[in-house]
Design a protein that fits this description.
By secondary structure, the chain is α/β, with parallel strands linked by helices. Helix content is 51%, strand content 11%. The N and C termini lie far apart (51 Å).
């Protein structure tokens, strides 16, 4: 059932909580979506809603777009304004607010994981499909520990051994999402430059390529190589991550990472554009089987 058609009641909230329980960030996104739907159904504009909680239109926008963590009093006041008085439904929203405010497992890595990157981890935990295009490095979810160490030491040359080990541990823990019984499907397109860049030296790179082949043979992982000799494999020279969710209340999200920040796009026109870019790359790249053969050639 489309999210707009799904009634906002206690059973719906129970469904959303169960489906997104692994990720407080996903719950926060669902909560924002439901609050926006209720506001629109009640015919109340964001400015009036903001005044009702001693805030502004901008505050309502941030709550509905999950850019802030909602306060319990604010949500309860908004539900009253929107005419939601059913006790079980309000209790469901209370539980949703409580879960949304809980720290995810990744918060124990606050020292090495900035807030803007933590959101990606939470979204990956809730995603059903993760599509990524990489132009320089093996995707983090497919890296060996030795390859990760090489990447970390190059990116953070002044990092202590403790920090390096924390970053490796974070990467290993993130990769557990692919070992779950209900793991998301990971579809990765890698520029050929990723294979030719000897990160960590020859042996580290050979081990990484073997690991990449092993992972690519799993049913829920697809790896394609975009070779130099195919002009259709050019997409602006920057990595792209596109996430899709089974939850009807969650729109697709595109993650674009810069050196010191990241951009998250969730407007349909933007995510659809990047989805088409990834479709074009996948069509132009080597097939999964051809990609495995190319990886084998690099190891021969």
């Amino acid at each position: 059932m489309p999210a707009s058609a799904r009634p906002v009641d206690a059973l719906t909230l129970e469904y959303y909580l169960a489906a997104s329980a692994r990720s407080p960030i996903a719950v926060r996104l669902v909560l924002g979506h439901l609050l926006r739907s209720l506001r629109r159904q009640a015919g109340i504009d964001a400015e009036a809603a903001g005044r009702s909680i001693r805030g502004s239109e901008a505050k309502i926008s941030r709550m509905e777009r999950a850019q802030v963590t909602c306060k319990m009093d604010d949500v309860m006041d908004l539900l009253t304004l929107y005419g939601v008085r059913d006790v079980p439904t309000r209790a469901g929203f209370e539980e949703m607010v409580r879960v949304a405010r809980e720290p995810g497992w990744w918060h124990r890595f606050d020292g090495v994981l900035p807030d803007w990157a933590g959101k990606l981890v939470g979204l990956q935990e809730a995603a059903s499909i993760i599509r990524t295009y990489e132009v320089q490095l093996v995707p983090g979810l497919l890296q060996t520990s030795a390859y990760t160490e090489a990447v970390v030491r190059q990116a953070y040359p002044l990092a202590s051994q403790e920090e390096v080990e924390a970053r490796i541990d974070l990467r290993r823990t993130r990769q557990l999402v692919l070992a779950r019984d209900d793991a998301p499907h990971l579809w990765a397109v890698l520029d050929e430059a990723v294979l030719r860049r000897p990160m960590g030296g020859e042996q580290v790179m050979r081990d990484q390529l073997r690991h990449l082949m092993t992972m690519a043979r799993l049913d829920h992982i697809t790896v394609q190589i975009a070779p130099f000799n195919r002009p259709g494999c050019i997409a602006g020279g920057f990595p792209i991550t596109h996430l899709r969710f089974d939850l009807p209340a969650l729109p697709d999200v595109v993650y674009l990472e810069q050196l010191l920040d990241a951009e998250y796009l969730d407007k349909p026109e933007a995510t659809e554009h990047y989805r088409r870019v990834l479709d074009g790359l996948a069509q132009a790249a080597l097939s999964p089987q051809e990609s495995l053969e190319l990886l084998a050639d690099f190891l021969s």
